[in-house]
Design a protein that fits this description.
Blueprint (H helix, E strand, L loop, with lengths): L7 E2 L7 E2 L2 H15 L6 E8 L3 E8 L9 E5 L6 E3 L5 E6 L5 E10 L4 E11 L7 E4 L5 E6 L4 E7 L5 E9 L20 E2 L5 E6 L4 E7 L6 E8 L6 E6 L5 E6 L4 E8 L4 E9 L3 H4 L5 E7 L5 E7 L3 E8 L4 E9 L7 E4 L5 E6 L4 E7 L6 E9 L3 E5 L4
Antiparallel strand pairs: 1-2, 3-4, 3-30, 4-5, 6-7, 7-8, 8-9, 10-11, 11-12, 12-13, 14-15, 15-16, 16-17, 18-19, 19-20, 20-21, 22-23, 23-24, 24-25, 26-27, 27-28, 28-29
């Protein structure tokens, strides 16, 4: 029997005409081409490394397959990355001039069909190397956190996203001293803005506080609003918000815990709700463990954090009604020292970077439970420490 049955359509003279197999195939092909990515859609993956520079790869969102990475820019110490809302400018930390932030334009390479980075401008942080770089929601202000220097810097941007000038460098002062080795002085490790763009927020590992600054999104100037306290010795490292904007999750590096806060946008106040371990005590004691990165699933239903030493991702379900996290599982990253990981915009895939194993591994996310399944996809690149898909 013919696998493609002949169908008839009336012509102008009402005489039935056969439709050929080729015509049928073309119709089907065009339909699927217009409605779904027939071979799977590829999206950009940018990876900052502690060694050679910024790499680029493609992720197929249908299959989870990663392309071989290519070096997009050879930059010393291009660790943390951020992207302008226009999608045409990428920012990175680097070691130039004892610590700088750099802007790159993203262009298409006609010969290789891969994005190309062209350096635009670098500006010193004013206080050594930066551990993190981020951009405000309007795309007017860049910001960086200097772990070693103990400060936060802000920078004005041109309308096209290029760096214009450094506006401020704010010292955080003395540490809490609870952990004598790690908290003798301030150590800001992450920087970002509140969902309403009112505040610049900086978790400081050394002071056991999140510094909350009023942000002028036009000029880049900041004024200290408050210092949000964390449990003594916890070492707050990174911070992310729920998609609703009502909840914030602070990851504590030293105690491997997560603090959940309710955020009131009308008052700008943070109220503590929960403190939960990313690893149980018996596992914390077996390794030189530390928490590194935290991410919230696009649906807001799940929260993920990485554990260095144990080399795993902790998975939690978030219940907005209960306002609490509930532990789901631990999943091995199939690598060593997961300093960073990210979730693709579709929420289907999680990419875990192993800094010491030189790996980037892919995991499929169960949309009902949040559980991770290793997708048997892994690529190698030198010391990956930041994974970025788009503006965040």
């Amino acid at each position: 029997m013919n696998k493609f049955p002949i169908r008839y359509y009336p012509t102008s003279n009402d005489t039935p005409q056969p439709v050929s197999m080729v015509q049928t195939i073309l119709v089907v092909f065009c339909f699927f081409s217009l409605t779904t990515p027939l071979w799977g859609q590829n999206i950009d993956v940018w990876v900052g490394t502690a060694k050679t520079g910024i790499y680029h790869a493609n992720l197929n969102v249908e299959s989870g397959k990663l392309s071989a990475p290519t070096l997009a820019s050879e930059t010393s110490g291009a660790g943390f990355l951020a992207m302008h809302p226009n999608g045409r400018v990428l920012y990175s930390t680097n070691r130039e001039n004892d610590g700088s932030v750099t802007a790159f334009s993203i262009t298409n390479n006609a010969s290789s069909q891969k994005p190309k980075l062209q350096k635009l401008q670098s500006i010193p942080t004013g206080d050594g190397g930066a551990a993190c770089v981020a951009i405000d929601k309007q795309g007017n202000v860049l910001m960086s956190a200097q772990y070693g220097g103990g400060s936060t810097s802000t920078y004005r941007l041109n309308p096209d996203g290029n760096l214009l000038s450094r506006v401020a460098n704010i010292e955080h002062g003395k540490g809490s001293g609870v952990n004598a080795k790690r908290q003798a002085t301030a150590h800001p490790h992450w920087v970002g803005t509140s969902p309403d763009n009112q505040f610049l927020l900086v978790p400081d590992l050394g002071t056991d506080q999140v510094f909350q600054y009023q942000l002028n999104a036009k000029t880049g100037e900041v004024v200290l609003e408050s210092k949000i306290p964390l449990p003594p010795g916890s070492g707050p490292r990174h911070m992310k918000f729920h998609p609703s904007g009502e909840y914030a999750f602070v990851l504590n590096e030293l105690t491997l815990t997560i603090n959940v806060f309710h955020y009131d946008q009308s008052s700008g106040k943070f109220q503590g709700i929960q403190n939960i371990e990313t690893l149980p005590s018996e596992l914390k004691d077996r390794h030189l463990n530390s928490a590194a990165e935290i991410r919230v699933h696009p649906t807001g239903n799940f929260v993920y954090s990485s554990n260095r030493g144990h080399d795993s991702i902790s998975v939690f379900r978030f219940h907005p009604q209960k306002k609490r996290l509930e532990f789901v599982e631990h999943e091995s990253v199939r690598g060593a020292w997961p300093r960073n990981f990210n979730i693709d915009p579709s929420g289907k895939w999680l990419l875990a970077a192993g800094q010491h194993s030189n790996t980037l591994a892919v995991f499929e996310i169960n949309q009902d439970t949040g559980e991770l399944t290793y997708a048997r996809q892994i690529i190698n690149l030198p010391a990956p420490i930041c994974v970025l898909f788009k503006n965040e």
